[in-house]
Design a protein that fits this description.
By secondary structure, the chain is α/β, with parallel strands linked by helices. Helix content is 49%, strand content 9%. Strands 1-2-3-4 form a four-stranded parallel β-sheet, sandwiched between helices.
Length: 224
């Protein structure tokens, strides 16, 4: 398999690779989460943020289960208010999708308790996921690895950029640096910078993702 993971999905594919390395042909990490490689203070900030977000998710889940109106999410400076159902992906409706798809996703997010249960369960397990990955950093040998970084980790859209702060600039630098540490896992690894993209590279620079997958595929075929 050529494994492709985006955001938290990077943890999933790395864990799969550790457990089933003989089945893995190559790896691609698209603006992947790097909590287990970040400086300690950033890890602690992420954990505090996740704990606060879990409180919101549980409130959303309970409202859906009880058929109550969905609570509003905390306000974001310069951005419109949104309900629980609008928090998924980079916000619903998503301009890249059809009205029909957006309507169906909103319907699911407004009514399906299992969606929230799965999301809550995933987030509750994150500290243990990170601990597992810290203890299992297995070499990929010469299997190809491509890391796509944007410098916009946690940024859902670059259409309306925020005013930079030293704290945010440091955060983006440390994330890109941590992502570069994945290159140590293979003797055949490279990092690509998609600087005109938000963290949703598949939306903003889909050709970059497709080209990288083809690169990994060709590298796999050349090893045979």
């Amino acid at each position: 398999y050529i494994l492709v993971g985006h955001a938290f999905g990077a943890d999933n594919v790395r864990a799969f690779a550790d457990r089933y390395m003989p089945e893995v042909a190559g790896l691609m990490l698209v603006e992947g989460d790097v909590d287990d490689f970040e400086p300690l203070d950033m890890q602690q900030d992420d954990h505090r943020g996740n704990a606060g977000y879990l409180v919101q998710l549980r409130a959303c889940r309970d409202a859906v289960a009880q058929g109550k109106p969905l609570p509003m999410q905390p306000s974001r400076p310069g951005r419109p208010p949104r309900t629980c159902a609008q928090q998924f992906f980079r916000g619903l409706p998503e301009s890249a999708w059809s009205p029909e798809l957006n309507a169906k996703l909103l319907q699911i997010a407004q009514a399906k308790v299992a969606l929230y249960d799965a999301y809550i369960s995933e987030m509750e397990e994150m500290p243990w996921d990170e601990a597992y990955l810290k203890q299992h950093r297995r070499s990929f040998g010469s299997r190809p690895i491509v890391v796509i970084s944007t410098g916009n980790h946690g940024v859902g859209s670059i259409a309306t950029p925020r005013a930079p702060t030293l704290q945010h600039l440091r955060y983006e630098y440390e994330v890109a640096l941590a992502q570069s540490r994945w290159l140590r896992l293979s003797s055949n690894a490279k990092q690509i910078f998609a600087t005109n993209s938000s963290e949703y590279v598949t939306f903003d620079e889909p050709d970059t993702v497709v080209d990288a997958i083809r690169y990994v595929r060709d590298a796999v075929l050349s090893r045979r």
